Amino acid sequence: MGKGRRLRSAPFGPKTGQALTRYLRERTKHPYASSNALWLGSRGPMTVSGVRRIVRVRRQRAGIERRHPHMLRHIFAHRWLSAGGTEGDLMRIAGCRSKDMLKRYGAAGADTHAIEADRRMGLGDRL
Fold first, then answer.
1. What end-to-end distance do the CA atoms of the chain give, in Å?
2. Most CB contacts within 10 A, which of 29, 57, 77, 123?
3. Are 99 and 91 in contact (CB under 8 A)?
4. Could you tell me which residues come within 8 angstroms of residue 37 by beta carbon, excluding any fewer than 6 positions away?
5. Statement: the pTM of the whole predicted model exceeds 0.70
6. Do 45 and 32 contact (CB within 8 A), yes or no?
7. Tens-place pLDDT, residues 73-117
């Protein structure tokens, strides 16, 4: 369920499927395994602050600059569009109700996306 209790699709690939299968196998051994929550922390169902903490710890270990979980949506939107994905499909996958949300998510990478499109088309070299 997404924001506003709307049903949302979350497609993923084989590597993610394998990781989820391993997690679910281990989850059955957790003291709070009977919880309806998918993600469990040491004290029970994972909270928003718990997710934020995990992202912070993992990015520090990986030597990645400061990021917050919501920024991952912005990065995903930029990469989707840069790879040639359509705005309509991105709206469905990301749960956006309007193109205004896409503009916000994609704004950081809009210049890069435009430059990449220009290079692909090579119109300046056809003069």
1. 51
2. 77
3. yes
4. 44, 45, 46
5. no
6. yes
7. 888 888 888 788 888 898 888 888 788 877 776 666 667 767 777
